[in-house]
Write a structure and sequence with these properties.
There is one protein chain. This protein folds into three domains: 19-108, Uridine Diphospho-n-acetylenolpyruvylglucosamine Reductase, domain 2, CATH 3.30.43; 111-223, Uridine Diphospho-n-acetylenolpyruvylglucosamine Reductase, domain 3; 241-321, Uridine Diphospho-n-acetylenolpyruvylglucosamine Reductase, domain 1. The strands form six sheets. The chain has a five-stranded antiparallel β-sheet with strand order 6-7-13-11-12. Strands 1-2-5-3 form a four-stranded mixed β-sheet, with no helix packed on it. A four-stranded antiparallel β-sheet has the order 15-18-17-16, with helices on one face. The protein starts with 38 loop residues before the first strand and ends with a strand. A hairpin with a 5-residue loop joins strand 11 and strand 12. By secondary structure, it is α+β, with helices and mostly antiparallel strands. The chain is built from six helices and 19 strands. Helix 2 packs antiparallel against helix 4 (220-237).
């Protein structure tokens, strides 16, 4: 038999090395993996990474070891391969058919927040709103308290101009560092993001890796009291500790989404294991058996009825990604 000899080819002397040829049926990695230090997982289930606990798998899930690892990976990616970043998965529906291309999950290496200037914080894209607000409080930096009320991470805040309790990221962002789809690391001033309500001009496939925020001097006790007030308000009005995705629809001009949903008769309404929250009608819930399809169907039922009754077209605030 003709073959390429290598150490261990003799059966009783096999040292366990991989064969020197491609294996039939093997799935190639999205990039050459030499020198990549983070975890690369094919057909990676994503439900455990999102608050709804539903949805399919990512073709590939990459969890970079650090910024250099992420840059190397992105530089090697084919331009035709879609890529998206994943934070806490708090404002996201992963569709049941899974996500094509690569999902990049920014974990602990990107979950830092530190004071880097006068009333200035530099935060990794994986840092939670609570961490950022608490770091600012401890340093006597005010105006970032509202981040305590947003269940997500800096990367998502920056991309979506996240906001709560009368404030939004556009009010505090100095600039952000972003890896573009070609692997280039750029720093974008806030003005380049052209913020509007829950929207930015960041291109698809661009991954926020850090951001700088600017506050004002404040008393840590007063800042802490405001954070406590925000936490109590969330506890009282929102269905915390449930399988939800946060605010479902953007507030239309001049009114509140929850009010339109409530007036359309959807408070507590159930559909295939999905439910409109009794506590806050702009929150959808997975009661335990829902699929992503059912949750999205329920949202579309609400949109159709609200439009038919009021002429208002509710716009999704929750991001919906992947294959149906």
């Amino acid at each position: 038999m003709t073959h390429t000899d290598q150490p261990g080819d003799v059966a009783n002397q096999d040292d366990g090395r991989a064969p020197s040829c491609d294996v039939d049926g093997a799935v190639k990695a999205p990039v050459p993996l030499e020198g990549i230090r983070g975890a690369v997982t094919g057909k990676a289930p994503l439900a455990k990474h999102v608050w709804f606990k539903t949805g399919g798998a990512a073709d590939w899930l990459f969890e970079p070891a650090d910024l250099d690892d992420l840059m190397t990976f992105m530089e090697r990616m084919d331009d035709s391969l879609p890529v998206m970043a994943l934070g806490l998965g708090s404002n996201l529906i992963i569709r049941d058919g899974g996500v094509p291309g690569v999902v990049v999950k920014l974990g602990k290496p990107f979950a830092r927040a530190e004071v880097t200037g006068d009333c200035e914080l530099t935060c990794g894209a994986g840092a939670s709103g609570i961490l950022v607000a608490s770091t600012a409080r401890d340093a006597g930096i005010a105006r970032l308290e509202f981040l305590r009320g947003i269940p997500g991470t800096v990367g998502g805040f920056v991309r979506m101009n996240g906001g709560a309790y009368g404030r939004e990221v556009a009010d505090i962002l100095i600039d952000c560092r972003v890896i573009m789809p070609d692997g280039a690391l750029v720093t974008l001033p806030a003005s380049d993001l052209r913020y509007s309500y829950r929207h930015s001009a960041l291109p698809d496939g661009a991954i926020v890796v850090s951001a700088r925020f600017k506050g004002t001097p404040g008393d840590p006790a007063d800042i802490g009291a405001e954070m406590d007030r925000i936490a109590a308000a969330r506890e009282e009005s929102q269905p915390l500790r449930t399988k939800t995705g946060g605010s479902t629809f953007k507030n239309p001009e001049g009114t509140s989404a929850w009010k339109l949903v409530d007036e359309a008769g959807f408070r507590g309404f159930k559909h295939k294991g999905a439910q409109v929250s009794e506590k806050h009608t702009n929150f959808l819930l997975n009661t335990g058996s829902a699929t992503s399809t059912a949750i999205e169907e329920l949202g579309e039922m609400i949109r159709d009825k609200v439009f038919a009754e009021t002429g208002v077209c509710l716009e999704w605030e929750i991001q919906r990604v992947g294959r149906p």
